[in-house]
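Section 3.1: Structural characterization of target chains.
Under the original work plan, the team committed to producing a structural model for every single-chain target entering the pipeline before any wet-lab resources were allocated. The record below documents one such target. The sequence was received from the expression subgroup and is listed exactly as submitted; it comprises 311 residues.
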Amino acid sequence: MVTILSKTCQACGSTFRFHVGGSLDPLAAEHCPACNKKRRGRVSAERYAIAHPDRIKAKNARRPKTGGKPGTKPKEALVWLEGVLHKICGHCHVPKPVATAFVSSTRTPDGFQNWCKSCKAQGLRISRTTNPDKTREQRRGTYVRTQAKCLQRSRDQYAQQALDPEFRKTNVQRVATWRKQNPLKKKLADMRRDARKAGLPDTMTHEQVVFLYQYWHFACAICGQEEGLFGVKLVLDHWVALADPHCPGTVVTNMILMCNGPGSCNTSKIGKDPVVWLTQRYGPRKAAAIMKKITTYFALVAAREATVQSA
């Protein structure tokens, strides 16, 4: 006859069940199956260290001496305080409950990370502040890997929030304020959306737009009129229109700065072929000079983009 009994694990304090009447003596078991599995792994690691001391020494030499990394300090022991299992944090050295203050880990003998949650969060905040470029690159890589999932989560969240009339009212005001404060970013976002609708690349960034304005000295790339002079306004324009079958999209090698208004370059060009339009508007000689300047700019930004991607 097999009898099922319960027993308290001496390592983690949890209650586990076992069968009486098997080939082994279960009454002699002092740990639950999960703790036994961790203990077996620890015993294997100790046997490996005894058999290969030179490898362990070389491995520890490659590890940093500071910073609280695993293996650079003695393992913290679990302690019982007022009937609750605690662990001493390896950073603040304060005993805290393992159930609420620590994250589980399979790399430590006791099954919990060496740092508590608050110390881990503080370390991550300091790392993000001191290494903004690395943090930005990591976040961008994570977003690229999970882009579809992130977009779907954002859509679901917005759809849920849109049911609230107060949120819709606040969101309309927020969007209107942002568009008023960031007209250049709004224009770029609209042009990128148009490119996506046409199934074309939309890799133009705000930093590239800023460089575009600085390169042309805040003036029209065709006629040279400066913004604000006689009410002239500058706008971003596709050098090869989106309706053209050969349009590369909203990319840095297809965006140009042009004046906008009655009789302006942008109004005159619309969706015409750029070379034909230049020749009709300025004549062959001046059109060739303007085309040379624009071709030089496109070659420059293409080289800058290649350098950034290779880095």
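Confidence is low (pLDDT under 50) at residues 21-28, 64-76.
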